[in-house]
Design a protein that fits this description.
binds 5'-O-[(S)-ethoxy(hydroxy)phosphoryl]adenosine; 7-stranded mixed β-sheet; single chain; 30 strands; globular; 2 domains; Rossmann fold; 19 helices; alpha/beta
Length: 636
């Protein structure tokens, strides 16, 4: 098929040009996708690197997600979520059901004193009650801080201390690969350690778990069937909706703060553009609510649009690797959105697990969280989509709120491995150290050159860090922290992080968090971790540790390895698994004491000395050379 013409593509590209050249006019139109109590006075205001969207606009996120469908629409009895879990429980929850539950929970929270601006920590697995919790907090104009249920006590405590959360919502347990995972015991520990917590709402699942001890701070929730109505608290567009902690280059996780108006406008529009979801969709985004993907595309965007979603509380390959495909068949999923890690895991099993299921309901497939290798892309296209479904590779971040680079569904021709072009209103480029656009196919830094409504407000309690991390490398442009290339068609391919963030199975983990967890083991003096490529998980963690002198004899004790792994599991949570541990006498450092992590990585990957001397910013060549030789010797 030669000489093809794409008039819609031309039209779209023209429209895109218009959107970025008339940014405010463009977003002024798009903002009507959600209902407002009062229209904004100004689309955009800026003060240096701080941006405000839809200033003067008034709204409430739970009204946007629920009430509008109950009162103004025909959606009242429409299914908001189908839910299933590993032990075979199923639920079908209409918009009205969800609305009732949210009002009842909001009443409980409000009676306990939760009000506008309070931070409520949510430590829940991916289920209906978790979504109800987020919306109930939003109904009161309070700010939720969801902590992934695969994290454990240290992660929870760090987030409580930083956000000054006084309330927690949790549940007794969850299920993972046939096991009951206790969540309450982590919260028991938190309230014994940290006295400022006023109350903990505990969803009692009533099955497979016996509540033995109950601190008086607990308020047990058995059901949400009451007849309460709580007025949605009117907030400003720029008021925060939630804080979500994520890992950065150094230091503790940062509390990424998102506003209400800009965020909701952005996620609702982008879900429509990228996936073309519609009234008859059964949308399945497999992300957990503990990550941004769950916030934006399991909760806020689908509900704002009034579509039907499916959620599953359990592991993808339990009891066997056909589970997800069976669910797609059963619920007739129309758009399916997952991570390359999950796909790579399925690729290693025989195709029979897939082929025995009818996946013909699928219309669009999506990918997120890490670069998707072209082979995986093609496998997904052929085996899951039967060559009939576009693959929408969406590049974005916790900080960006929603999709930034992704093929506009049905219009942008696809290239395996490429996130393709920026969405309307988004200006992305790949630049060198000086900020000049690089030549086609040359590696550089991805930057965003104009503001967009989904952008973070700031880092909670830390405006300086916000400016320093995101806005200081290239003045006036948002620094992403990813490497990328742009090809001759302007298509963007992502090449992974340019900083010390590790992406395990698409989960964003900071070196600092893991290192400080390792140091909780009292035999360890120093630790450094790096991410190394892994065929399935994208990256895995390798750790270098130095034993304290008095424990030096443990060097030859094989138990030390499992002991360290166990410490990390307990402190950070089961999501962080250390693949290999190397015991060394010292860590390579620059004069100023910075660990040369890139050197550690280079040695692990078997790179030559010539390739590594320029890797470390602050180190002299001779320092790097010496460290390199020493490390190679130590690893022999
Ligand atoms: C990576 C997840 C390649 C990237 C939504 C980014 C991707 C980080 C893609 C943000 C993609 C996300 N292709 N890489 N389609 N999507 N990433 O905050 O390195 O958990 O900076 O947000 O994930 O991770 P976060």
């Amino acid at each position: 098929m030669k000489n093809l013409y794409y008039p819609y593509l031309n039209k779209y590209l023209k429209f895109y040009e218009w959107s970025v050249n008339n940014l405010e006019e463009f977003w002024n139109l798009q903002a009507n996708i959600i209902p407002w109590f009062k229209k904004w006075d100004r689309v955009l205001e800026s003060d240096g690197n701080f941006y405000k969207w839809f200033v003067g606009g008034l709204l409430n996120a739970s009204y946007v997600c629920l009430d509008q469908h109950i009162f103004n629409n025909f959606n009242k009895d429409k299914v908001a979520y189908y839910y299933e879990n590993e032990i075979g429980e199923t639920k079908s929850v209409s918009y009205y059901d969800l609305y009732i539950m949210v009002n009842n929970l909001a009443k409980v929270l409000s009676d306990l004193g939760v009000s506008k601006g309070d931070v409520v920590l949510i430590y829940m697995p991916l289920n209906i009650e978790a979504i109800v919790s987020m919306l109930a907090v939003a109904r009161l104009g309070a700010i939720h801080s969801v902590v992934f249920s695969g994290f454990s006590t240290k992660a929870i405590l760090d987030r409580i201390i930083d956000s000054k959360a006084k309330y927690i919502i949790t549940t007794t347990h969850t299920y993972r690969k046939g096991k009951v995972v206790d969540l309450k015991s982590n919260i028991d520990f938190i309230i014994s350690e940290y006295k400022d917590i006023k109350n903990v709402l505990l969803f009692d699942r009533k099955k497979d778990y016996e509540i033995k001890e109950l601190d008086p701070k607990y308020v047990v929730i058995k059901d949400l069937n009451g007849y309460n109505y709580i007025n949605p608290v009117i907030v400003e567009s720029t008021d925060p909706l939630f804080v979500l902690y994520t890992s950065g280059t150094t230091g503790k996780p940062k509390g990424i703060l998102h506003s209400t108006g800009g965020y909701l406008v952005y996620v609702a529009n982008t879900l429509k553009w990228a996936f073309n979801v519609g009234y008859d969709s059964v949308w399945w985004c497999t992300a957990d609510i503990g990550w941004i993907t769950g916030h934006s595309y399991v909760v806020y965007a689908p509900l704002a649009l009034g579509i039907t979603s499916f959620i599953y509380e359990g592991a993808p390959d339990y009891p066997d690797p056909s589970k997800w495909w069976a669910l797609i068949e059963k619920y007739k999923i129309t758009e399916f959105y997952t991570s390359p890690t999950a796909l790579r895991m399925f690729m290693k099993y025989p195709l029979d697990y897939i082929k025995k299921h009818d996946l013909s309901s699928l219309r669009v497939l999506g990918s997120v969280g890490e670069p998707i290798n072209p082979e995986v892309w093609v496998w997904y296209f052929e085996n899951i989509g039967n060559k009939l479904c576009p693959i929408i590779d969406t590049w974005w971040q916790t900080e960006t709120g929603g999709f930034m680079i992704a093929p506009f569904m049905g219009i942008i021709p696809l290239k395996p491995g490429f996130a393709s072009l920026p969405l309307p209103g988004v200006v992305a480029d790949v630049v060198d150290e000086q900020g000049n656009s690089v030549k086609p196919n040359e590696k550089g830094y991805l930057v965003i050159k104009k503001p967009w409504p989904g952008m973070m407000k700031t880092i909670l309690n830390n405006n300086e860090m916000y400016e320093q991390v995101y806005w200081s490398k290239f003045k006036g442009w948002y620094y992403v922290g990813d490497y990328a290339i742009k090809d001759e068609d302007g298509y963007i391919q992502l090449l992974g992080r340019a900083d010390e963030v590790i992406k395990i199975a698409g989960h964003r983990i900071g070196t600092f968090e893991v290192e400080s967890a390792i140091l909780e083991n009292n035999k360890i003096a120093e630790a450094a971790v790096v991410g190394v490529p892994d065929e399935i998980k994208g990256e895995v963690i390798n750790a270098f540790v130095v034993l304290k002198q008095e424990f030096a004899n443990y060097k030859d004790d094989p138990n030390i390895f499992s002991e360290i792994k166990q410490t990390v599991r307990e402190v950070v949570g089961p999501v962080v698994v250390i693949d290999k541990i190397f015991i060394v006498d010292k860590l390579p450092k620059t004069r100023s004491g910075k660990i040369m992590r890139r050197l550690l990585k280079a040695v692990l990957l078997g790179k030559e000395l010539g390739d590594v001397t320029t890797l470390e910013d602050e180190a002299s060549i001779s320092e790097v050379k010496n460290a390199y030789e020493e490390l190679k010797k130590a690893l022999k």
